[in-house]
Write a structure and sequence with these properties.
Layout (H helix, E strand, L loop, with lengths): L5 H10 L6 E4 L7 H11 L5 E5 L2 H7 L6 E4 L4 H15 L4 H8 L3 H5 L4 E4 L3 H13 L5 E3 L2 H10 L4 E5 L7 H11 L5 E6 L6 H8 L3 E4 L4 H17 L8
Parallel strand pairs: 1-2, 2-3, 4-5, 4-6, 6-7, 7-8
Helix pairs in contact: 1-2, 4-7, 8-9
């Protein structure tokens, strides 16, 4: 979910079924990042907040505890990915380092080997998802839109495709239909979506997707899906679409 101002962010949150994390810039018109965070804390006290600011240290001192993390701009993607993971794990009630050492192990890919394609147009989401997958021992490849995903799937046999639903050029649903029509060896396709509407899961399955993951990605949910489908695929010498 994206918003260009604090007011729009509050509107988006009010119309959604909740968010797992809010990342806000400090300098915005009418309502700055601190004002927005304080309002979100009042309305949605359970949502962790990350602030992007050029005066990060001052905000930490003036508003201790308001943000899960305050990051100075310009932001380095790998650091942002780490802070997002930490914030989400704290929100789930676990110490981030303990969870990371337990869950994010390169041994995971040895136990559940697969070739993974990530179809996602948002650079931040790309970095977060690939960061998690690499920590699990995988070497995922990226497609920036649905058309690239279809082209990649026709050139290489992927075990699993993580497919964003909303992408430019060709969305995830259309890309999935194209893959289901053209490939002999079918990959497992798991939908990635920021929306939590009740009809989304049915739309994904009707398009030929096998499963569904809500964004932002939770590590335990992602690893659970990989386990499930790698085991199913290894035990069945048939296409898995519609299982």
């Amino acid at each position: 979910m994206l918003a260009s101002s604090g007011k729009e962010a509050l509107s988006v949150l009010s119309k959604s079924n909740g968010a797992d994390l809010v990342i806000t810039d400090m300098q915005m018109p009418c309502m700055d990042g601190v004002m927005l965070a304080e309002r979100i804390r009042e309305l949605y006290p359970g949502i962790p907040l990350i602030l992007l600011s050029s005066i990060g240290e001052d905000v930490k001192k003036e508003k201790p505890g308001l943000f899960a993390s305050v990051m100075n701009k310009p932001i380095k993607h790998h650091i942002l990915s780490k802070q997002i993971l930490n914030a989400l794990q704290r929100h789930n009630g676990a110490h981030p380092e303990a969870v990371a050492s337990k869950v994010l192990s390169a041994d995971f890919s040895d136990a559940y080997p697969c070739n993974i394609l990530v179809a996602e147009d948002n650079p931040m989401n790309q970095h977060v998802i690939t960061h998690i997958l690499k920590k699990l021992g995988y070497q995922p490849e990226i497609a920036k839109n649905g058309q690239e995903a279809v082209e990649a799937a026709n050139l290489k046999d992927y075990t699993l495709i993580l497919m964003d639903m909303q992408m430019p050029v060709m969305d995830g649903l259309e890309a999935t239909r194209a893959i289901r029509k053209t490939l002999v060896e079918q990959p497992v396709i798991i939908a990635l979506t920021a929306n939590t509407m009740s009809g989304d899961e049915a739309a994904c399955l009707n398009a030929g997707m096998d499963d569904y993951l809500a964004k932002p990605i939770k590590i335990e949910e992602l690893t659970g899906k990989i386990k499930k489908w790698v085991l199913l695929k290894s035990n069945r010498n048939i296409p898995v679409a519609g299982v």
